[in-house]
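Form 7-S
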Amino acid sequence: MFFLIALLTGVLGGVLIYSATSIRKYPQQMSRRMALALLWFWAAGVIYFTFGTPSGGGQTVNLKPLDITNKADIVDAVLNVLMFAPGGILLALLPMRWHQAALSGFLGSLAIEATQYLTHSGRSADLNDLTGNTLGALAGFACTAAALSHTRAAREPRMPQHSNCARNPMASRTPAGKVSDPIVARPLQYPSGQRETAGLK
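Output:
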């Protein structure tokens, strides 16, 4: 039942967000409007997995950092990273910097852990969950931002290399295609014995 509620909430909320942003045409990019809608859908999925699935029990509060003493703790840490990585990927599609993405992941995870503790849901409020979720959001953001940056750099047209003729308009090309020296005005050369006669005319 809880799965159905989370699914309907995610789908209907995502559709409403995309429709509202499309009507207002803000953000202008369709990819950003889609990212906002998918963020809502992802958040609904996170709520389902953190509250709607059975828990293995454990301590009510665990403030011991890097508590990975057994295999189950390692698996749990990996799952926490993977669960928040899609959120970081979607945040990278929005006009957001890395520290804002990390803060968003931290605050979202903090809200989940605090709710688990206050509602006595049977799940422990774990410092390692908070760390893993934050790292997952940051890792997803960093990978997507790097991929987008590489794609933009590949699409940018390369500036053509200018030849010597373009840099120096006075230069001319020889029939062989080589650039010759610029044309420079030189004084007239008179044969010996005629310079004085030319000056008297």
